[in-house]
Amino acid sequence: MAKETLDILSERLTPNRLRAHLSLPGDWQPFPAAENREAWSALPEAQRRELVGQGEAWHDYDWAPIRATTFLDFRRSGNRSRFEDMHFTRRHALHHLVLAECAEGQGRFLDAVINGIWAICEESFWGIPPHSFAPLHPHAGLPEVTYPVVDLFAAETGALLAWTRSLLGARIDADPHTAIVTDRIEHEIRARLINPYRNVPWWPWLRCGNRPDNNWNPWIHSNLIACILLIETDPEVRLELLSRCIAGMDVFLNGYGTDAVGPRCVCRLTECCSWPRGRIQRAAPAHYHPA
Asked: pLDDT digits over 138-155, tens only?
């Protein structure tokens, strides 16, 4: 028996409803920026010290380049750990440096944050080697930079940088020598994520054609939605992209039974529903549904 197509999200978050209730670009700030010292000073002292201490552990981190031969390890020998250790450590470091600067608020971690942003923006691919493919060079073991692949970790990286700009962008922009950094974040997110998602209709994790349901779907969409809400300023493009994300998440939901989604996917799916709900004024909560 064919599965029922519910389209739970599209039914509630229609383009007309989004258009009527979507607040203005720049208004969505679910977490206080570093300038909001009243909010960050309200942290319990023990938590503040913990965040600062974690940042201090990464303050002098060496943002060494990731060599092409390290990326090639996977194609040549099947080894993925050498690349992934460097890839995820970079993001872990930036995460802690950003929160440390927000918690302390004295500018001590800003240069380290900028080093991390720049190093990650200089990467040819924000994903990992097993997820890379090069349509023009099918045997290549290196990423094709003219064809950005939207995978789990590219989307996650984009969200990390978008949140970094949201939290620390004003402080980075305050120095005319580094103000270009926030523009670089926007450029890279558009080039690597927003434009490919908008222009390429057949990403495998969208279950195009006869492909099975893919749990990448809510994971990637949760990060794409954050990027769209934090980066995209054109109201019509933002509406188009959010509508596509909503339809894409329905593809995932329509393919599953009532008890067939794993806990991590549920968490990501909840994020997907929560971001627009917080951004859309007075709209119906899409994730309160009896199905």
From this structure: 889 999 999 999 999 999
Q: Residues 35, 110: one domain?
A: yes
Pair (56, 158) in one structural domain: yes
In degrees rounded to 5, what are phi and psi of residue 36? -80, 75
247 is a domain residue: yes
First to last CA, the chain: 18
Which pLDDT tens digit goes with each residue over 95-134? 999 999 999 999 999 999 999 999 999 999 999 999 998 8
Q: Read off the pTM.
A: 0.87
Enumerate residues 6+ apart whose C-beta is below 8 A from 16.
none
Cβ neighbour number for residue 258 with a 10 Å cutoff: 6
10 Å CB burial of residue 82 (0-12, 13-18, 19+) is middle
Same domain, 6 and 108: no
Cα separation, 196 vs 84, whole angstroms: 23
Are 34 and 173 members of one domain?
A: yes
Range of the domain at 44: 30-200
